[in-house]
Write a structure and sequence with these properties.
The protein has 94 residues and is α+β, with helices and mostly antiparallel strands. It is built from three helices and four strands, in the order H-E-E-H-E-E-H.
């Protein structure tokens, strides 16, 4: 059991410096999407005007393992997407 768990961790786990720990790649993807949706709104006053800023910094964008995983997901998605050739969808009856 220990060897299976160790091999699974070697393949699917990421050591994260931001959240301090070793996480599953699925957990990293979920956190990446949640942080991407989170926007911090700030306001500042100067010279009688109010300036509003929106921060959308995502530290997970710098993780090489996560970016490689996301790019591989996009490659797999495009690999299995239909090519637009309708001849493969025709039904032949004899």
């Amino acid at each position: 059991m220990n060897t299976d768990q160790k091999s699974w961790l070697d393949e699917y786990a990421v050591t994260c410096r931001v959240f301090k720990g070793r996480w599953s790649i699925r957990h990293c993807l979920r956190m990446y999407n949640e942080i991407k949706d989170l926007k911090i709104q700030m306001s500042s006053r100067a010279k009688g005007k109010v300036t509003r800023h929106e921060s959308a910094y995502n530290p997970c964008e710098r993780c090489k393992v996560l970016t490689n995983y996301i790019s591989s997901l996009h490659e797999q998605e495009s690999h299995y997407a239909p090519t637009g050739d309708s001849s493969s969808y025709e039904v032949w009856a004899v």
